[in-house]
Design goal:
With 281 residues, the chain is of the alpha/beta class. The chain has eight helices and ten strands. The chain has two domains: 101 residues, no CATH class; 131 residues, no CATH class. The protein is globular, with a radius of gyration of 19 Å. It starts with a strand and ends with a strand.
Length: 281
């Protein structure tokens, strides 16, 4: 049984959160650079170049890429041969977020009471943490900072099985079109199909962690990802909604078994502040 102290988890989480807020993933930056060449709109090209310049400044100056430092979301795989020592892994992760918020000069974006006082928690906690127990003696942590703009434009629907593939495509494209400038395109689009009402949304969020251009292992789903990306970029939304070809840089789909009477579909949009990171301990 391998022992991992909570202090190590806290330190690793603090560093990964700050790194994600300062540095966009290399695959996404490469996709943006490629998008400049593909964009036909002059203002669209200018916006994409400005986004890239902003990313360079954020990385160099160690400043948050976007003022909305997001809702901290974690997917954590804990090896069954790991023993956490010295405390709770959940609290260790939240402490890492607290320290990152303070030391990284990150905006606190969470309100404890969603309806009445909406008082800010002051430190970006509690984080949303999904745990999974897996074989092995390591801990793998994936982090995303989900900004309010893109999260607000994400949608879920319970389609009828009879709606089928065309119903899925129609819903996904309508969601992207309606998001428009409010979700700060160019987007990365995560789609969850199947499972239950709640799990379809988890699938959509998990899909966003896959690298840009990484296709689903099922050829039929991979083909659908490519088709939806092509159709999304024919909507004319363009960078920041000013029109153009590049509305999305990728569409990624995750699927799960489903009840015979249901067809849940969720779309989780990620804005150009595509802040994802992952570590293994």
């Amino acid at each position: 049984m391998r022992q991992i102290p909570v202090e190590l988890i806290t330190e690793k989480v603090k560093n990964m959160v700050m790194d994600a807020e300062y540095n966009l993933p290399e695959d996404f930056l490469n996709a943006l650079k490629s998008s400049v060449e593909k964009e036909v709109s002059p203002i669209g090209k200018e916006i994409l170049n400005t986004i890239l310049e902003n990313a360079e400044v954020a990385s160099k100056e160690k400043m948050a890429y976007c003022q909305d430092t997001g809702y901290p979301v974690f997917f954590v795989e804990v090896g069954q041969d790991v023993q956490i020592t010295g405390g709770s892994i959940r609290e260790a992760i939240n402490e890492g977020v607290r320290q990152a918020t303070k030391e990284g000069y990150l905006r606190a974006s969470l309100a404890y009471d969603p309806i009445f006082e909406r008082k800010n928690t002051g430190d970006n906690t509690p984080a949303l943490i999904y745990f999974d127990i897996v074989p092995g003696d390591k801990i793998k942590i994936k982090f995303a900072a989900k900004g309010g703009g893109s999260e607000n434009q994400s949608k879920q629907v319970m389609l009828r099985p009879a709606d089928g593939l065309e119903g899925v495509k129609k819903f996904v494209l309508k969601t992207i079109a309606n998001a428009g400038p409010n979700a700060c395109p160019p987007f990365t689009v995560g789609v969850g199909i199947g499972g239950t009402f709640d799990y379809s949304t988890v699938l959509a969020k998990k899909a966003l962690f896959r690298p840009i251009g990484d296709r689903h292992p099922d050829p039929k789903i991979a083909k659908l990802e490519e088709e939806l990306l092509e159709l999304a970029n024919k909507l004319g939304v363009g960078p920041l909604g000013f029109g153009g070809r590049i509305t999305a840089v990728d569409v990624k789909i995750e699927v799960a078994p489903v009840h015979i009477a249901s067809l849940p579909v969720a779309v989780n949009i990620q804005c150009h502040a595509n802040r994802h990171s992952e570590i293994e301990i």
